[in-house]
Amino acid sequence: MTTTNRTFNRVLLFLIGLIGIIVGVTIGAGVLQPVRDALQQYVTLPQQVSVPDQALWIIAGVCALVIILALIVVFTRGGGGTSVAVRERSGNDQVTVNVALVRDVIDHELTGVRDIVTAKVDTYLVKKERAARIRVHVRRGGDAVTVLDAVDHALTTLDQTLGRQVPVLVHLTGGTRTALARTTRVQ
């Protein structure tokens, strides 16, 4: 539900990290004697490096460009995550419902369901409309139909509480957390 591609983010972070490591090792080899001695075994380094003034300006320009591009990526990525679940305006009045209320209603309604380990609620701004994402971690071997019925009942209660319907994406997951979760004991 965000506007950026996860794979693109990972590749971009990998490339920036790789470039940072290469630049750091290069600078360290030119300045720090211990780094120079450690690299001497693998790479022959010149004793003295002379760089023309024009090359320094080109390097400074490339560094400035990389910084500007990094800032653009930082300020334009993500997009959507918000703490406001519902905002209604009527004249000069405005009612704002925080995501905490949505979390409390969903948690309260799903508390007694045996097959649910945890449920997390996030809200996003998607195409200028607020929507919720509910991630439900289902216990290993749990009944998905029972879980979906419980989530549907919780959403009905949420809609009644808010007085309107909120677009919702329900995401059922399993995995390590659900495999290691303790089973519910009846006493």
TrEMBL record:
Keywords: Membrane, Transmembrane, Transmembrane helix
Superkingdom of origin organism: Bacteria
Stretches that traverse the bilayer: 12-35, 55-75
Species, as recorded: Curtobacterium caseinilyticum
UniProt protein name: Alkaline shock response membrane anchor protein AmaP
